[in-house]
Amino acid sequence: xxxxxxxxxxxxxxxxxxxxxxxxxxxxxxxxxxxxxxxxxxxxxxxxxxxxxxxxxxxxxxxxxxxxxxxxxxxxxxxxxxxxxxxxxxxxxxxxxxxxxxxxxxxxxxxxxxxxxxxxxxxxxxxxxxxxxxxxxxxxxxxxxxxxxxxxxxxxxxxxxxxxxxxxxxxxxxxxxxxxxxxxxxxxxxxxxxxxxxxxxxxxxxxxxxxxxxxxxxxxxxxxxxxxxxxxxxxxxxxxxxxxxxxxxxxxxxxxxxxxxxxxxxxxxxxxxxxxxxxxxxxxxxxxxxxxxxxxxxxxxxxxxxxxxxxxxxxxxxxxxxxxxxxxxxxxxxxxxxxxxxxxxxxxxxxxxxxxxxxxxxxxxxxxxxxxxxxxxxxxxxxxxxxxxxxxxxxxxxxxxxxxxxxxxxxxxxxxxxxxxxxxxxxxxxxxxxxxxxxxx
Length: 441
Ligand code: S3P
Known about the structure:
Layout: E1 2-7, E2 13-16, H1 22-34, E3 36-42, H2 48-59, E4 63-66, E5 76-82, E6 94-95, H3 100-111, E7 117-120, H4 123-126, H5 131-139, E8 144-145, E9 154-156, E10 166-168, H6 174-184, E11 190-194, H7 202-209, E12 215-217, E13 220-224, E14 233-235, H8 240-251, E15 257-264, H9 271-278, E16 282-291, E17 294-302, H10 323-331, E18 336-339, H11 352-362, E19 366-370, E20 373-377, E21 384-387, H12 392-401, E22 409-412, H13 424-431, E23 434-439
Parallel strand pairs: 2-15, 3-14, 6-7, 10-11, 21-22
Antiparallel strand pairs: 1-22, 1-23, 3-5, 4-5, 7-9, 8-9, 11-13, 12-13, 15-17, 16-17, 18-20, 19-20
Bound molecules: shikimate-3-phosphate.
């Protein structure tokens, strides 16, 4: 077991970068694999989750070079696309590790592609809900099943001929939307998906990069199946979900001043910036541009006097992965911060509402847990031992809390940080965090 031991004090400074965006890296691999021709992905996230997606495509016969020797830049992937019908049935079950995004997007993509397969994952993933993606795929006549409990394993039988669907999404979810859009690529007819609230639109933006026609009008996204994707080059920006740990870290420590380079600021992903600014954070976007269809900027953050707010529910989907660290900011803010409308946090890599509440209470912070969120009263954080529940974002959020605690924090069981942020400890130390790794037998 790997634990993080963080000593308080210090400040964050300097100019640095964080690894590539996880959501965009998954999609870049998936679309490259089914495109016609060779695609080159740069800035790819070499994390366990995205490597699980890569292994799945290799198992289905796709030739992929990962960080070819002597080639710059690093984090490069070259994919020889096999076209819409070129994937092969894998010899064994596809194990997607801890990655919910891989399972949900692949379920859609593979349902109409004539591939027969079983999808499995680690202990956490095996217990996460899957029925809500399987049922709409069945409505499209996919031959797909999950377990009776509505979990993995998922079985997909090849040869189903999919029918387009007009689908009103029951809740905001980019994974469900993307799952259905990827299934729609091989369905007969025109699929229309209506979103109750906008969620990250990386799939839509990237389909356009691969020259696939897709229309986004208001809250409706539509595409007609049966077309082809044309290989292209994709530059993946740095992940705002990884940058968020240092954005909060700089806000909560005196004398901090950092610039995080080349971060994706997709308008459906940047709510962490809006929420923190509303709390009084000093965050400036520099050198804004569009790269591979996605908005990107350098993010400058200075130490800030934060105050509590009622987080608008409209901002929840756009910051869904950042709440562990946003609630650490709330613990350091003056007054109360209320989070509501975030019940989805209960079905992430862990029950994140309980994990955050427990962790902050361990540090002596007054937190009131509700079914769909929590109320945090800012105060002085003590030290203590935090159970990460093997959840990467809980582990990193409480490592950041260590900057502002009155005595050391130990975060237990941090190995899964590798799923989304390989090199977290090195980046954190370079930025100014006093963190050492403890290995426990
Ligand atoms: C993701 C969508 C989000 C997010 C997840 C990645 C994606 O989930 O929490 O980490 O890549 O599409 P939702 O499906 O709840 O939006």
